Amino acid sequence: MALRDKAAEIYGVKAKQVFIYCNGRSAMLAYLSSLKGVLIPKDGGDDLKIGVISFTCSSAVSPVLWSGNKPCYIETDLDTLSVDLSDLEVKLVKLDLVIVQHSFGIPANMAGIKMLCETHGVRIIEDCAHAFGDTSIGKAGDAMISSFGIEKVLNTKIGGFLIVNDMEQVAKVDGWNEGNLENFGLVRSLKWFLMPYLWVIVRQLRGLGKYAVKLGFSLGLLSDGYESIEHDLKKPNWYPSGLPKMFERKILKSINGLENIRSHRSKLVDLYSSSLGSSMYPDAISDNEQLSLIKFPVILDSKVHREIAIAALREAGCYVTDWYNHPLYPSKTNLEEFGYELGECPVAQDLADRVLNLPTAMFVQEADAKKYCDILNSIVVE
Ligand SMILES: Cc1ncc(COP(=O)(O)O)c(C=O)c1O
Fold first, then answer.
1. How buried is residue 350: exposed, middle or buried, by Cβ count under 10 Å (0-12/13-18/19+)?
2. Is residue 374 part of a domain?
3. In a domain, 241, yes or no
4. Domain containing residue 52
5. Which residue's CA is the nearest one to ligand 1's atom 14?
6. Looking at ligand 1, which atom is closest to the CA of residue 27?
7. Is residue 253 part of a domain?
8. Does one domain contain both 334 and 190?
9. Would you say residue 381 has pLDDT above 80?
10. Ligand 1 closest atom vs CA 23
């Protein structure tokens, strides 16, 4: 079975509605580019004004600019870590399209967002990069993208896809892909194929590991999912491209374990949410049963406590990542190039100062998760 057919089966759509790419950025870039001449900017200008949430990473926004459009940053809702409805309502008049991100896998308030968008004739695309396999989301908009990349639901490190709901637009994407996809290339294929094994090796090198990582990055043998030029909004010349078959096979194999992975993650989400005070994580986590999140976001009361907590968790062997600790994560993102003005979305920026992420990956045992909660609880009551 081809990956396209598998994704279609999972999401209950026709295979021709699914488009497979080398990453989620390519999927979003292809969709937004295919809208040229189809969706006419409300303000009569050349570029579409596209709403994006402010508590996000640069890779969720760069395709907006690469496709010649303009991002409009929307404030972040504390309950869902996605679009804030009251800010959306204010900004909708000037928007043509909204990208709704389901952050960490937490469902955004699609009913509320859809109602507002319909009133203003604004289209929706859902960003399900963090939620592959959750079929309760990704169907409310005109299209959705998802990712098989680094730190996503599966540990496949590469790949992404687009699902288009409108059949006329399906033909447009097909047409756009025909003349615009880059060649992934054999050398790059080999590098990306070997990369997961190299990561395992360098992680075992301890003291020498950081030099090996530096060397690996400079030779293009290791990647954290970004090329350094992307921080300045430059597009790597191999985006957008399709996905070589060797990776399709790997992803298909990994999808066989999808239910196991999702249920492991949801067991850890249950454990974290029942062991931590409910003020320490977004309300939507307790409001949704059996949520399978790629990371469990913890919101501490101050940046100082966050830093203390990260140090203590790392000391205990916890894999804590720095996701979203900066507006348009990572901290190297050139905000000016991305059209984000510091202070523009204060709620998102405050969240960025206070968030940390607990892991939900397969390597985390329940006993580890309990230990991490004890550490966090002891810091919060200090
Ligand atoms: C919310 C979100 N959207 C889109 C992307 C892009 O996915 P990819 O890394 O496959 O290009 C990412 C990746 O980090 C993401 O976190």
1. middle
2. yes
3. no
4. 3-180
5. 59
6. 11
7. no
8. no
9. no
10. 10
